[in-house]
UniProtKB/TrEMBL annotation:
Annotated keywords: Lyase
Amidohydrolase-related domain sequence ranges: 8-332
PANTHER family recorded: 2-AMINO-3-CARBOXYLMUCONATE-6-SEMIALDEHYDE DECARBOXYLASE, ISO-OROTATE DECARBOXYLASE (EUROFUNG)
Pfam families: Amidohydro_2
The protein, known as: Amidohydrolase family protein
InterPro entries on file: ACMSD, Amidohydro-rel, Metal_Hydrolase
Domain of life where this protein originates: Bacteria
């Protein structure tokens, strides 16, 4: 008798107050928070504070997390630090303290329920020279890899300075979870929570395009990279990228194959908030490249990821692959 794969949510967060205590008063923090406030606008900040406080227990307490998972029908979560902990403004000394504390605290959180929680650490993308040792530190804690944003100040993911990180991640089999935090469109998105609803999928699309068009995925075909939010706008508009690649020498010089072909080398979570978009994501990336994701427990996620998956009316085999079969193999949770 075949035992069904567990239901695995690859997009779930943990809040680590000890990191915020660590960076309190550090030079650069006030400026970073002011930028965040400008990008989001006062109305969004007024809603976000109470929202996080209402979810604090699920973000920090393992018992509350497990109870919520049981209610959702989720067996296993891949837990990543809240992106608010990136702190890419920090200097080298503080950045090293942040990634070490993030890895150790996330590992401790997951160790309270090792059969149900697996974790990711952080990498200070603003200091590429620290990236490999940060990844190694995360792996040494028993974590499966690291979470990264879509860019760092002054650096895109296509920057050659990140080549050692991609090499180490590929060779170690580490997971890379691409989750943006902050959109460089800034005040253009400072009303109606456009900073998130438009900004996040934009950042996903830009970051993935840098990885594709620069040839990073040609040089590192074995990377295990999961894109949050279904990869943003890119998968549903990949035809425009293919056209540019074939029509223009400047667009096609960096990668060997049509951009759409690289979607089948990436992984995507299912958090797209539209069953038709989810079906299209499965079509263009392949059912073996889409993983259940909820953005637990934030309000821009889904309280019922399985219901969202069922709404796409995928073939039975594809449904179970996305529900947990793909992730079970990726997380080594057979």
């Amino acid at each position: 008798m075949t035992v069904p794969a567990p239901t695995v949510d690859v997009h779930a967060h943990v809040l680590l107050p000890e990191i915020e205590a660590l960076v309190a008063g550090e030079p650069g923090l006030a400026e970073a928070r002011a930028l965040d406030a400008r990008r989001n606008g006062p109305a969004a900040l007024a809603v976000s504070g109470p929202m996080v406080r209402a979810r604090f227990a699920r973000l920090t307490d393992v018992a509350a997390r497990l109870a919520a998972m049981d209610a959702q029908g989720v067996d296993v979560q891949l837990v990543s630090p809240s992106p608010s902990h990136y702190h890419y403004w920090a200097g080298e000394e503080t950045a090293e303290k942040v990634y070490r504390l993030a890895g150790e605290a996330t590992a401790a959180h997951c160790a309270a329920a090792p059969d149900r929680l697996r974790g990711l650490g952080l990498v200070p993308l603003q200091h590429p020279a620290l990236a490999v040792e940060a990844l190694d530190h995360a792996l040494a804690q028993g974590l499966l890899g690291v979470e990264i944003s879509s860019h760092a100040p002054g650096r895109e993911l296509s920057d050659p300075a990140y080549e050692p990180l991609w090499t180490r991640a590929e060779r170690s089999g580490a997971l890379l979870f691409l989750h943006p935090f902050g959109c460089t469109l800034d005040e253009r998105l400072d009303r109606w929570y456009l900073s998130n609803s438009v900004g996040q999928p934009t950042e996903n699309a830009v970051a993935l395009s840098h990885l594709i068009f620069s040839g990073v995925l040609d040089r590192h075909p074995g990377l295990k990279l999961i894109a949050a939010h279904g990869g943003g706008y890119l998968p549903t508009h990949i035809g425009r990228s293919d056209h540019a690649w074939s029509a223009r020498a400047d667009a096609g010089e960096g990668c060997a194959h049509p951009p759409s072909s690289y979607l089948k080398r990436l992984y995507f979570d299912s958090l797209v908030h539209d069953p038709h978009v989810l079906r299209e994501l499965v079509r263009v990336a392949g059912a073996d490249r889409v993983l259940l994701g909820s953005d637990f427990p934030f309000d821009m996620g889904t309280e019922d990821p399985l219901a969202a998956l069922r709404a796409a009316h995928l073939p039975d085999a594809d449904f179970h692959a996305v529900r947990g079969g793909n992730a079970a193999a990726l997380l080594r949770k057979d």
